[in-house]
Amino acid sequence: MTATLDPYAAAPQLMKSWMALSNAANASLEPALVELVKIRSSQINGCANCINMHSVDARAQGESEQRLYLLPAWREAPCYTDRERAALAWTEALTRISEGHGHAQARADLQAHFSAEEQVKLTLIINVINGWNRLAVGFGLWYDIPAKAAA
Asked: What b/e readout covers 108-129, taking b as 16+ CB neighbours within 10 angstroms?
Protein backbone atom coordinates (compact mmCIF):
# COMPACT_ATOMS: atom_id res chain seq x y z
CA MET A 1 0.00 0.00 0.00
CA THR A 2 1.28 3.44 -0.86
CA ALA A 3 0.37 6.33 1.38
CA THR A 4 -1.49 9.14 -0.35
CA LEU A 5 -0.36 11.67 2.24
CA ASP A 6 2.05 11.66 5.17
CA PRO A 7 0.24 13.40 8.03
CA TYR A 8 3.49 13.79 9.99
CA ALA A 9 5.02 15.78 7.14
CA ALA A 10 1.84 17.70 6.33
CA ALA A 11 1.01 18.81 9.89
CA PRO A 12 3.98 17.99 12.14
CA GLN A 13 3.01 20.07 15.18
CA LEU A 14 -0.56 18.83 15.26
CA MET A 15 0.59 15.22 14.76
CA LYS A 16 3.08 15.67 17.62
CA SER A 17 0.19 16.78 19.87
CA TRP A 18 -1.98 13.93 18.60
CA MET A 19 0.79 11.43 19.39
CA ALA A 20 1.19 12.88 22.89
CA LEU A 21 -2.55 12.48 23.55
CA SER A 22 -2.41 8.96 22.13
CA ASN A 23 0.51 7.98 24.36
CA ALA A 24 -1.09 9.49 27.47
CA ALA A 25 -4.42 7.76 26.84
CA ASN A 26 -2.76 4.42 26.12
CA ALA A 27 -0.80 4.57 29.37
CA SER A 28 -3.89 5.30 31.47
CA LEU A 29 -5.29 1.75 31.77
CA GLU A 30 -3.85 -1.75 31.88
CA PRO A 31 -1.86 -2.46 28.68
CA ALA A 32 -3.53 -5.77 27.78
CA LEU A 33 -7.00 -4.21 27.95
CA VAL A 34 -5.89 -1.21 25.90
CA GLU A 35 -4.55 -3.47 23.14
CA LEU A 36 -7.77 -5.51 22.99
CA VAL A 37 -9.80 -2.31 22.66
CA LYS A 38 -7.51 -0.95 19.94
CA ILE A 39 -7.63 -4.19 17.96
CA ARG A 40 -11.42 -4.51 18.23
CA SER A 41 -12.02 -0.94 17.11
CA SER A 42 -9.57 -1.41 14.24
CA GLN A 43 -11.35 -4.61 13.18
CA ILE A 44 -14.68 -2.78 13.04
CA ASN A 45 -13.12 0.08 11.06
CA GLY A 46 -11.27 -2.24 8.69
CA CYS A 47 -7.89 -0.73 9.50
CA ALA A 48 -5.31 -3.35 8.50
CA ASN A 49 -2.44 -1.11 9.58
CA CYS A 50 -3.71 -0.78 13.15
CA ILE A 51 -4.81 -4.43 13.43
CA ASN A 52 -1.30 -5.43 12.38
CA MET A 53 0.46 -3.03 14.75
CA HIS A 54 -1.67 -3.70 17.79
CA SER A 55 -1.70 -7.48 17.36
CA VAL A 56 2.10 -7.38 17.53
CA ASP A 57 1.89 -5.09 20.58
CA ALA A 58 -0.65 -7.38 22.27
CA ARG A 59 1.55 -10.43 21.73
CA ALA A 60 4.48 -8.52 23.18
CA GLN A 61 2.31 -7.87 26.26
CA GLY A 62 1.80 -11.64 26.55
CA GLU A 63 -1.63 -11.85 24.92
CA SER A 64 -2.52 -15.35 23.68
CA GLU A 65 -3.21 -16.24 20.08
CA GLN A 66 -6.53 -17.74 21.16
CA ARG A 67 -7.81 -14.48 22.63
CA LEU A 68 -6.62 -12.50 19.60
CA TYR A 69 -8.33 -14.88 17.16
CA LEU A 70 -11.56 -14.90 19.17
CA LEU A 71 -11.78 -11.12 19.56
CA PRO A 72 -14.38 -10.63 16.77
CA ALA A 73 -16.59 -13.16 18.60
CA TRP A 74 -15.81 -12.02 22.16
CA ARG A 75 -19.47 -12.31 23.26
CA GLU A 76 -19.45 -16.07 22.65
CA ALA A 77 -15.91 -16.77 23.84
CA PRO A 78 -15.45 -17.61 27.54
CA CYS A 79 -11.85 -16.37 27.73
CA TYR A 80 -12.53 -12.68 28.44
CA THR A 81 -13.12 -11.19 31.89
CA ASP A 82 -16.24 -9.21 32.75
CA ARG A 83 -14.14 -6.04 32.77
CA GLU A 84 -12.80 -6.82 29.29
CA ARG A 85 -16.32 -7.58 28.06
CA ALA A 86 -17.55 -4.24 29.39
CA ALA A 87 -14.67 -2.46 27.64
CA LEU A 88 -15.28 -4.30 24.37
CA ALA A 89 -19.02 -3.57 24.47
CA TRP A 90 -18.28 0.13 25.09
CA THR A 91 -15.73 0.07 22.26
CA GLU A 92 -18.29 -1.33 19.85
CA ALA A 93 -21.01 1.08 21.00
CA LEU A 94 -18.80 4.13 20.45
CA THR A 95 -17.12 2.89 17.27
CA ARG A 96 -20.54 2.10 15.76
CA ILE A 97 -22.29 5.15 17.19
CA SER A 98 -23.72 6.09 13.79
CA GLU A 99 -25.69 2.83 13.73
CA GLY A 100 -27.92 3.99 16.57
CA HIS A 101 -27.91 5.08 20.12
CA GLY A 102 -28.94 1.80 21.78
CA HIS A 103 -25.88 1.60 23.99
CA ALA A 104 -27.65 1.66 27.37
CA GLN A 105 -26.54 -1.87 28.30
CA ALA A 106 -22.95 -1.16 27.29
CA ARG A 107 -23.04 1.95 29.47
CA ALA A 108 -24.46 0.01 32.41
CA ASP A 109 -21.77 -2.65 32.09
CA LEU A 110 -19.12 0.05 31.82
CA GLN A 111 -20.33 1.66 35.06
CA ALA A 112 -20.32 -1.71 36.81
CA HIS A 113 -16.68 -2.45 36.00
CA PHE A 114 -14.95 0.93 35.66
CA SER A 115 -14.69 3.93 37.97
CA ALA A 116 -15.83 7.30 36.62
CA GLU A 117 -12.20 8.24 35.90
CA GLU A 118 -11.56 4.92 34.13
CA GLN A 119 -14.70 5.44 32.03
CA VAL A 120 -13.28 8.72 30.75
CA LYS A 121 -9.87 7.13 30.15
CA LEU A 122 -11.39 4.23 28.22
CA THR A 123 -13.58 6.56 26.18
CA LEU A 124 -10.52 8.64 25.26
CA ILE A 125 -8.61 5.49 24.25
CA ILE A 126 -11.51 4.47 22.01
CA ASN A 127 -11.71 7.94 20.48
CA VAL A 128 -7.97 8.02 19.83
CA ILE A 129 -7.85 4.61 18.12
CA ASN A 130 -10.85 5.55 16.00
CA GLY A 131 -8.92 8.67 14.99
CA TRP A 132 -5.82 6.66 14.14
CA ASN A 133 -7.98 4.26 12.11
CA ARG A 134 -9.35 7.15 10.11
CA LEU A 135 -5.89 8.60 9.49
CA ALA A 136 -4.50 5.22 8.41
CA VAL A 137 -7.44 4.21 6.22
CA GLY A 138 -8.00 7.72 4.87
CA PHE A 139 -4.40 8.26 3.81
CA GLY A 140 -3.46 4.66 3.01
CA LEU A 141 -0.88 4.42 5.78
CA TRP A 142 1.05 1.22 6.38
CA TYR A 143 3.91 0.96 8.82
CA ASP A 144 5.92 -2.23 8.59
CA ILE A 145 6.60 -3.93 11.86
CA PRO A 146 10.18 -5.21 12.09
CA ALA A 147 10.36 -8.96 11.64
CA LYS A 148 11.99 -9.23 15.07
CA ALA A 149 8.99 -7.63 16.78
CA ALA A 150 6.55 -9.84 14.89
CA ALA A 151 8.39 -13.05 15.81
From this structure: ebbeebbeeebbebbbbbbebb
